[in-house]
């Protein structure tokens, strides 16, 4: 980005400055989009994959809404244990402000107890656990292929904090900017009724304005 600004606009800035911008605005926009009122469907898809952080593997978890493909939550952890699965699922429930009726996962043994403790209501919850048919599993597989394409270019992360920041920034891009053929060319945010497709500038501007007038701006964003 530093080279692009110098070549295209004649503006010289350091890579450190660009890095600080990214940290600032990913955090700002991330806080803002969590306030937008969207309703998830009754079925969620949960999965996990490995990413390289400082030369070692860490676990990247992803929670996807079945109907809208909206990425509800991400989580970075060192292990795939029940405690990690619970933390991850709890994030999803807190963000969506509801619990699902069905959860689709792979065969990871940490899921059953974690789902029962974090997602179950009074009514029984349906847990569809792998190995699964291609029709049930391909939504998460497609999502992680997109993630892997991005992380492969980066060649891994220099810190756990960097991996978390990537996951948060990627979720914003995936939900609000990436078109999906399965959604008729719309973004997951559009499919969820969170307004038109948005750019980073749109979201940064909205986040700044929402701090000035929270209620008015959030109502505007949902139209």
TrEMBL record:
MF annotations from Gene Ontology: DNA binding
Pfam families: DDE_Tnp_IS240
SUPFAM superfamilies found in the cross-reference section: Ribonuclease H-like
Keywords: DNA recombination, DNA-binding, Transposition
Tagged with keyword Chaperone: no
Domain of life: Archaea
Cross-referenced InterPro entries: DDE_dom, Integrase_cat-core, IS_Transposase, RNaseH-like_sf, RNaseH_sf, Transpos_IS6
Gene3D superfamilies with a match to the protein in the record: Ribonuclease H-like superfamily/Ribonuclease H
GO biological process: DNA integration; DNA recombination; transposition
Residues covered by the Integrase catalytic domain: 36-196
NCBIfam families: transpos_IS6
Function noted in UniProt: Involved in the transposition of the insertion sequence.
Protein name, UniProt field: Integrase catalytic domain-containing protein
Lineage: Archaea, Methanobacteriati, Methanobacteriota, candidate division MSBL1
């Amino acid at each position: 980005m530093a080279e692009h600004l110098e070549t295209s606009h004649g503006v010289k800035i350091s890579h450190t400055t660009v890095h600080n911008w990214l940290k600032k605005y990913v955090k700002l926009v991330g806080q803002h989009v969590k306030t937008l009122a969207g309703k998830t469907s009754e079925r969620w898809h949960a999965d996990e994959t490995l990413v390289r952080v400082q030369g070692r593997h860490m676990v990247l978890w992803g929670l996807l809404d079945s109907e809208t493909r909206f990425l509800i939550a991400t989580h970075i952890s060192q292990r795939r244990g029940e405690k990690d699965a619970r933390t991850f699922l709890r994030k999803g429930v807190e963000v969506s402000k509801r619990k699902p009726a069905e959860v689709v996962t792979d065969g990871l043994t940490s899921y059953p107890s974690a789902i029962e403790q974090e997602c179950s209501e009074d009514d029984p919850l349906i847990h569809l656990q792998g190995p699964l048919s291609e029709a049930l599993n391909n939504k998460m597989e497609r999502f992680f292929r997109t993630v892997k394409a991005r992380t492969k270019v980066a060649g891994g992360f220099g810190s756990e904090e960097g991996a978390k920041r990537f996951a948060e920034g990627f979720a914003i891009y995936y939900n609000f900017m990436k078109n999906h053929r399965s959604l008729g060319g719309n973004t997951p945010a559009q499919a969820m009724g969170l307004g038109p497709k948005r750019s980073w500038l749109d979201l940064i501007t909205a986040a700044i304005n929402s701090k000035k007038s929270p209620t008015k701006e959030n109502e505007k964003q949902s139209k």
